[in-house]
Design a protein that fits this description.
CATH topology: Spore Coat Polysaccharide Biosynthesis Protein SpsA, Chain A
Bound molecules: uridine 5'-triphosphate
Largest sheet: 5 strands, mixed, barrel
Order of helices and strands: EEEHEHHHEHHEEHEEEEHHEEHH
Helix content: 25-40%
CATH superfamily: Spore Coat Polysaccharide Biosynthesis Protein SpsA, Chain A
Structural class: alpha/beta
Oligomer: single chain
Number of helices: 11
Number of domains: 1
Distance between the termini: 53 Å
């Protein structure tokens, strides 16, 4: 199908991260490290892999360190060069987005995810774009690609709007946005309905919305209404439900594993899984882990 390329991704990073306090009192939760890099860096790598060229961060007060992370660190690089620590230096340079490939805009008050995405409207303009929730980080499954790349594949095939989904036990659905499943197309399906945090036992399926989206720019007209939804926040799901009245939505069943680093247990699990997936760290870490597990 003839589709426009997905060139831009929005990273909403203005939330308060209250579930992981006190760590997030002075450190943005997106800058907490999983193995040896900030959670947000993992997400930027996933976006790059999916062909994203422009990275748009919706930040808030006390998040300036995020901007510094995606800039050169002149003194550090100079010192590494003088000390001939070239592997470390090359690693830093390889991680940097190209000059001009990042934009930072502020959400002045944390009014909700929908509001945060709306704050990126001028930078996105009139083209389809990706949204990456940076507290969710993903490891590839058998296909070898991460979640956003798989969403882009579904978008290329069907166009419209695409949401990454994954299955959870039915008793957990009330905590999430849930989609209703229509016609199947391999790893994707048509979405027939969506609901944010349905009451227990009332979810239309056990496929939850899991933190990666491809959206058409008409979503901004709906987000502009600023209507508050669940939890008194401006919810992205509410505008997606409205947009689904005029445009198609597809769910992409992610082949891989997602970790919610916005919760303490999810953050710890992510560190274990990502360390075990790193060939340079895995042998020593596995031995350490075995020692700990042996004491349980
Ligand atoms: P969360 O609800 O998980 O983030 O939003 P939070 O509000 O920081 O978390 P807790 O519950 O207090 O611990 C998902 C993503 O949307 C961003 C968050 O930064 C997070 O990456 N977000 C959320 C915003 O940018 N602005 C908001 O108003 C709300």
């Amino acid at each position: 199908m003839q589709t426009k390329p997905i060139r831009k991704a929005v990273f909403p990073v203005a939330g308060l991260g209250t579930r992981v306090l006190p760590a997030t009192k002075t450190i943005p939760k997106e800058m907490l490290t999983v193995v040896d890099r900030p959670v947000l860096q993992h997400c930027v790598e996933e976006a790059r892999e999916a062909g994203i060229e422009h990275f748009i961060f919706v930040t808030g007060r006390n998040k300036a360190v995020i901007e510094d992370h995606f800039d050169i660190a002149y003194e550090l690089e100079d010192t590494l060069r003088k000390r001939k620590k070239l592997t470390e230096l090359e690693g830093l340079i390889a991680d940097l987005p190209a000059p001009g490939a990042t934009s930072f805009t502020r959400q002045q008050s944390p009014l909700g995810l929908g509001h945060a995405v709306w704050c990126a409207r001028e930078v996105i303009g009139d083209e389809p774009f990706a949204v990456i929730l940076p507290d969710m980080i993903t490891l590839p499954g058998a296909m070898g690609t991460r979640c956003l790349q798989q969403c882009v594949e579904t978008y290329r095939e069907h166009g419209g709007n695409v949401i990454a989904v994954e299955e959870v036990p039915p008793e957990d659905t009330h905590q999430y946005g849930v989609v209703a499943k229509g016609e199947e197309f391999g790893a994707s399906f048509a979405i027939n309905g969506m609901v944010e945090k349905p009451p227990k036992g009332a979810a239309p399926s056990n496929f939850i919305i899991s933190g990666r989206y491809i959206l058409e720019p008409q979503i901004f007209d709906l987000l502009a209404n600023g209507k508050k939804g669940a939890g008194g926040e401006i919810q992205l799901t509410d505008s997606m439900i409205e947009l689904a009245g005029t445009q198609k939505f597809f769910g992409r069943i992610f082949d891989g594993k997602t970790y919610d680093t916005g919760s303490k247990v999810g953050f710890l699990a992510a560190n274990v899984a990502f360390a075990l997936a790193r060939p340079d760290i895995e042998p020593a870490f596995r031995a350490e882990l075995k020692r700990i597990v042996g004491t349980l």
